[in-house]
Amino acid sequence: MDHFNYRDGVLFAEDVPLTTIAAAVGTPVYVYSRATLIRHARVFRDALSAVLPRMHLAYAMKANPNLSVLKVLASEGYGADIVSGGELERALAAGMPAGDVVFSGVGKDAGELARGVEVGIGQFNLESEEEGEELARIAASMGGRAVCALRVNPDVDAKTHAKISTGKSENKFGVAYDRAAGIYLRLSALEGLEMRGLAVHIGSQITDLDPSRQAFIKMGALMRDIRGQGLTVSHMDLGGGLGVPYKAGEELPGPEDYAAMVAQVTDGWDATIMFEPGRVIAGNSGVMMTRVIRVKQGATNTPFVVIDAAMNDLARPALYDAWHDFVAVEKTGERMSANIVGPICESTDTFAMARDIDAVKAGDLAAFRTAGAYGATMANTYNSRPLVPEVMVDGEKWAIVANRIEPATILAAETVPDWLD
Ligand code: LLP
């Protein structure tokens, strides 16, 4: 459920017609609904807290790191799952306590590790023995101890798009399952580390709970094995990955089904269970609004609807063949079949082929639904296009929460050496 609904044929974000935002800010533009963000944050939190005695939620801010989005989630008691020094500074800027931050990522460099120790990161999810050794040296040299979990690659197929699968043995993430207990043992002996748990994350947009169940069962066995060797495993981080419906009417396992599965698998674990949800919190909380530039007749009967948004603004269809529902902001009730494309000079810049959509014509506004996660954050300026702006709505209020960055600003950051003049 979200707060993007039609009133008299016009699409609203909460109590604001999208036409108002388009007139004031222009297009393309991302529009987020605060009430929807809060709703998803609560549904996920309440489903899990109802069945787990001890848990910790770290919003995977890679899904949508906008400062205002983070503020909303911080106020709902979420910490952050981060993967870079830049995300760390954002989490702190949003007022998230460092102790609620989990630092994931396969390539944290020495500077990022040191900054994490300095601010007192809640948990480093180590992705290799080598990383653990480096962090131990850094923490010890700073007179501290870094609290850590070991990320394990369970070699389970998440049955999602190959490019967003992370839990197969050939993926770069975590340490091999069979080597994990040995690595945990060796890292536990290091002065600068406090090994307290295990972490797993097998992929994103997971729509079948079974792979996660298999992975969590394997993690439970590993936890018992490590505890059997006399070591502490007090925290089990089960990652993120729960998928969201991208098509109207699509039925998928939701937070309650996920929570029931987690409760069943983790029964008797006696550990704090941690989660890193991203998409399930932010996905449905945003749309990307665009304007139709023109409708062009092609070689076939299916016209091209050329819109002012492109793959640089919303990369998911180009990267993962992802589906985003496309709707007219002002519905006429008429339908058409169309290829939806952006202005960028490559054929990858295609949002949909031969899609049955609301009829649109030049000048009309339209929106891609479920664009709140992995949308604006993956935008770039390819073809010297502006960086897409972001707006947040709260009831009848709305505000720009990230400006459009114009090509002139980007041009101004470039310099020409005198030897080229
Ligand atoms: N934890 C870790 C360690 C992760 O790598 C990720 C996502 C998450 C949590 C959050 O997963 P979520 O709950 O959002 O599924 N750009 C792609 C998705 C990449 C996901 C990367 N890692 C897309 O647009 O589909």
The separation of the N and C termini measures 58 Å
How many independent structural domains? 2
Report Rg: 23 Å
| Secondary-structure content class | alpha/beta
Written account of the structure:
With 421 residues, the protein is an alpha/beta fold. The protein folds into two domains: 4-32 and 283-412, Beta Barrel (Lyase, Ornithine Decarboxylase, Chain A, domain 1), CATH 2.40.37; 34-281, TIM Barrel, CATH 3.20.20.10. The chain is 29% helix and 25% strand. It is built from twelve helices and 21 strands. It has helices at residues 18-25, 34-49, 67-75, 85-93, 110-119, 129-141, 177-188, 209-228, 255-266, 279-282, 316-320, 407-412, and strands at 4-7, 10-13, 16-17, 29-33, 55-60, 79-82, 101-103, 123-126, 146-153, 175-176, 193-199, 235-237, 272-275, 286-296, 304-307, 326-328, 335-341, 350-358, 365-368, 390-394, 397-402. Strands 4, 14, 15, 16, 17, 18, 19, 20 and 21 form a nine-stranded mixed beta sheet that branches. It has an eight-stranded parallel beta barrel with strand order 5-6-7-8-9-11-12-13, surrounded by four helices. Strand 5, helix 3 and strand 6 (79-82) form a beta-alpha-beta unit. Helix 2 (34-49) runs parallel beside helix 9, helix 5 (110-119) crosses helix 6 and helix 8 runs parallel beside helix 9 (255-266). It is globular and about 70 Å long. The termini are far apart. The model has no long low-confidence stretch (mean pLDDT 97). The site of ligand LLP has 22 residues, from helix 10 and helix 11.
